[in-house]
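During the first year of the project, the team set up a workflow for recording each protein of interest as an amino acid sequence followed immediately by a discrete structure-token representation. This format lets reviewers and collaborators read both layers of information side by side without switching files. As required by the reporting guidelines, we include two representative entries from the current panel. The first entry is reproduced here exactly as it appears in our internal archive.
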Amino acid sequence: MGVLSEVQLIGKALQEAGKIDLYQKLLAILEKDLELQDENQKLKEKIASLSEELRMKGSLRFKNNSYYLELENGQADGPFCSACWDSKKTLVRLHDLEDCDWCPSCKGYGAIDRRSSR
């Protein structure tokens, strides 16, 4: 028998015995338990998010005013917008325009001007 089933049996017994004050206290305890379960779930999600952010941060390398993700095979993926990562912790791939990189999220332009290297 699960905890909820047992609590329901206790609640029913309290109601039948006329112990309304104890029944109300039991309901208050159950409500608090649900709040704590909800808070616990939110904290678990926050921990997972922060853990992923920390893992990602450890894999990012800043080069030419952009971020590159260092892959396990030693290769680099990128470039990613430094403004989006620094402000929102979001990796947004820069688009390669003819003369510079462009971020579709923040609409910023990368500092790399490839006109001089062509």
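The second entry, processed by the same pipeline in the following quarter, appears below.
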Amino acid sequence: MIKGFFLIILTYCLLGTSTGVAAGAQKPIQIEADHMLSLQKENTVFFSGKVEAKQEELVIHADEMTVYYNETEEKDGTPGQGGMQSKDVDRIFAKGSVEITQLEWVATGETAEYFSSERKVILTGAAKVWQDNNLVTGNKVVMYLDEGKSVVERSTDKGERVKAFFYPESKDQK
């Protein structure tokens, strides 16, 4: 049998340790790019030009990445005192040559979007997910993080279908 369906592994690797890349409360996120534009009134930060976002072993490369956040005020317990402003990630959108890697798996597509409130990731545009030699392809991969469920959809182009290639482990690899 195939060692744990690798899309579930992708789900947990992508955003699985707590809330992963988007929330990043436990682990720091480092983003590097050629350009950054912060739009405080729109609660967004836009990165462009060879964007690389890292959180521990998780790395996301894209041509552009936009982080959308909500501002919330945290109470400090002192009557009449305002609290600190906190920025909670609402959603992240990456586009252009998107590549997500962690350890032995890689996911690619034209766009990737993470929805924090739904804990859902959507990878679109010739989406491909590899783990070792195993491969799943489709036009769109939707990962429901809390449900441990993934859905792969085909393109509407004639003849296009979802494809999966699974290679069982040899006895020598166990």
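For the second entry, the following points were noted during internal review. Confidence is low (pLDDT under 50) at residues 1-25. The first helix runs from residue 6 to 15. Both points are flagged for discussion at the upcoming steering committee meeting.
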